Amino acid sequence: RDVAPSRGLGDVYKDSHSKGDISVSMLAEQTGFSCRHINRIFTSYYGFGPKDYCRYVRFQYALDEIFKNPFRQNSEFIQNSSYSDQAHFQREFKQFTGITPKQFINSFTA
């Protein structure tokens, strides 16, 4: 089976787990595709694999949470965004933005 980019696995992924906390095997179970086929589809349509897509979705969710209330503690963003701990959150945040969460929040609240 082929999945059209307009309603592809990424959309199924977002719909079912908007925080980015689904495994490739769970996605395979929901769609009926093999894990290997899912990896090929993601790479073909999105340019990266499902795990990287998961990171992106999780980061977007955390960013949305920050914009909703930037004055919360990092621990609240971590708890709500499926990050394993604060170091994981900060490391991934910096990989996407080039700055720490605190620096990011200060840049638009100052």
Write up this protein.
By secondary structure, the chain is an all-alpha fold. The protein contains seven helices and no strands. The protein has helices at residues 9-16, 24-31, 35-46, 50-68, 74-80, 86-97, 101-109. It is elongated, with a radius of gyration of 15 Å. The protein starts with 8 loop residues before the first helix and ends with a helix. Mean pLDDT is 81; it is low at 1-7.
Shape: elongated
Biggest β-sheet strands, sense, barrel: none
Provide a count of the helices: 7
Which blocks of ≥5 consecutive residues have pLDDT under 50? 1-7
Share of helix, binned: 55-70%
Count the beta strands. 0
Quick check: average pLDDT?
81
Please render the helix and strand layout as text.
Blueprint: H1 9-16, H2 24-31, H3 35-46, H4 50-68, H5 74-80, H6 86-97, H7 101-109
Q: Can you describe this structure in just a few lines?
A:
The chain is mainly alpha-helical and 110 residues long. The chain is built from 7 helices and no strands. The chain is 68% helix and 0% strand.
